[in-house]
Specification:
InterPro entries: dCache_1 (IPR033479), Diguanylate_Cyclase (IPR050469), GGDEF_dom (IPR000160), Nucleotide_cyclase (IPR029787), Rev_trsase/Diguanyl_cyclase (IPR043128). Helix content is about 50%, strand content about 25%. The protein has twelve helices and 18 strands. The protein has helices at about 1-35, 35-70, 75-80, 85-100, 135-140, 185-200, 235-240, 275-320, 330-345, 360-385, 410-425, 455-470, and strands at about 105-110, 115, 120-125, 145-150, 155-170, 175-185, 200-205, 210-215, 240-250, 255-260, 265-275, 350-360, 395, 400-405, 430, 435, 440-445, 475-480. The strands form four sheets. Strands 3-2-1-6-5-4 form a six-stranded antiparallel beta sheet. It has a five-stranded antiparallel beta sheet with strand order 8-7-11-10-9. It has a five-stranded mixed beta sheet with strand order 13-14-12-17-18, sandwiched between helices. Helix 1 (about 1-35) runs antiparallel to helix 8. The chain starts with a helix and ends in an 18-residue tail after the last strand.
Length: about 500
Amino acid sequence: MPGNKVYLITVLTLMLLAGFIATTLISYFAAARTLSSQVAEETLPLTSDNIYSEIQRDLLTPVLISSLMARDTFVRDWVLDGEGEVAPMLRYLQEIMDEYRTITAFFVSDRTFRYYHPSGVLKEVSPEDPVDSWYFRVRESRAPYEINVDTDTADRSRLSIFVNYRVLDYEGRLLGVTGVGLGVDAVVRTIEAYQRRYGRTIYFVDREGHVTLHGSDYSGARRIQDARGLGQRALQVLTSPSASITYERHDGRLVYANSRLVPEFGWYLMVEQDTVRGIRTIETSLLINILLALAVTALVLFGAYLTLSRYQQRLEQMATTDRLSGAANRQVFDIVFEHIAATLQRDPRPVSVILLDIDLFKEVNDSFGHPGGDVVIRQLVELIHRCVREEDTVCRWGGEEFLVLLDRCPAERARAVAEGIREAVKREPTVFGRDRIAITISAGVAELLPGEGATGIIGRADAALYRAKREGRDRVYLAEGAAPVAASVPGQRRYG
């Protein structure tokens, strides 16, 4: 097996390396020949998607902050208590700003329409004031929050990105709207970071085509309709949630552009790349793909090694475990018993077995079918494991017959364990769908006698079990003396 494993992993290594290298080189040369389609249809949209995802991720933090504010018991209790003293709310909002470094934090009460800000109560929002339309929009919304770009109520000269979160009382009624604001300059810094990372030009455009946010090095037109080349494709950008276009810039360079509507802003994310950057990107991608190929190869080989090892372990488990119940099988009992017997001479100690059987199990199968019987058997094994020690061996001996091998356990203690199992089974009916299946067990207990083998001790436990069945079931009997001369073959008798 080890030799086969090495051979398989070696072959898999060569196949993976050959496949990855061939695929990478073919992709590189194909991309170099068809740069336009590669960039416009694959590379640029992928970059745009990555940037879009990262922007949404950056918005997650203020959303979480606003969510915590909306669920803060202080905020809800303060409103429910009548908004008495203003100072505690103002301190709370100031602490939010200081802790999370937001440019603003606010709460608008739905009872008084007051706009609370760390600097005080700024105003009372009104449905007649267009500036306050955001509040009444959120108020009627079914969504827990919204993100919008607006001027800051505390500073009309500052454009901010707000997360407006609905605050509900303990009965689910609206108490107001709370949240935080992010400075647009922070988003600009994020844009510049993306441009450095991806080597592309990134900016935002509103639904009318105005360039709303861009990096400090942006030198294009203020409206995409006025940009040479891009102006002819502006309608396509502004009327589609996403678009991939190609246009010729004023300096003659071919530019590939990808647009993506960011619903939270109501703006289009524009990502552009010219042909020079495209070639560099493809060469960089070649190197990255090779490194990724090596990394993936290593991961796949590691996974293959683990899979083969687990498969081998699974085969060993299947050879030693009963599939239905999860208990050990007779082969395991033989191995464990032989090991115990071999050590008894140098380490004398009591060894006992419990042979137990489900009473009238045929009636369970007749009433609930074999699926019900299977569930009963599985739960019985769980109960047995719960009542015995971790080092004890639980085996499925026959159809509804089980054997427990207890090392370093005298007969009386084994009998107490068997009684514990019997009481647990009687106390805990098996749940099968809407039915509860009540069963009982009978058990025979025997302690290993000097010089006795597995056949002898199991035969005596079997005789004790038979006596328990014969004298009324739902009981435990302790075997005495040597094995009976005409003991039945355990696992074949139908006790009932």
